[in-house]
Amino acid sequence: MRDILIRYIKRFTDFTEGELETIVSDVPIEEFKKGTILLEQGEVPVKCYFVLKGCVRQFSINEDGKENTFNFFTEEQPVNIFNQHTLDKASKYSLSCTEDCVLVVGDLSIEQQMYDKYSGLETMTRKLFEENIGEMHDNFAEFISSRPEERYQSLLNNRPDLITRVPQHQLASFLGITPESLSRIKRRL
């Protein structure tokens, strides 16, 4: 599993093999069972995650009790938590494991210590966020300008593994449609 993390870090840094080995040995890797809640909506996050194996769902529950799925994080993806702009730092989302997962678990309270110890990590984090924010903007623009059939087709083209990995009602929520509409779209296509 650590080789996956090393390969990923190499995409964003020019650390030597020795530095990579040292960094990766400092990073805790944990296993989580399907259904584990990593973060509850309204909590202040104290951990960050990187998926080595499995699938993590980002969702919220509105005032009416309806769940809305915003993203799925799978292998070699960081689980992004953007809440530093809020005064109370509370998460607007929950995170749960939709499968058994193996995750890198970062402690946000020692983030600066890690940056001080490994100066290239801060640059890596910036590059990572730039890439992720760019993807989020592109995905949002595509989402709001497309019809449900086009969203599903995009999912088939870009993330086909989700079709078999997550429950249909969560997939429908992610696509912004009802489970019944998703079933009709699947039949048509």
TrEMBL record:
The keyword Cell division does not apply. InterPro entries: cNMP-bd_dom, cNMP-bd_dom_sf, RmlC-like_jellyroll. The keyword Cytoplasm does not apply. Keywords: Activator. Residues 11-57 form the Cyclic nucleotide-binding domain. This is Cyclic nucleotide-binding protein.
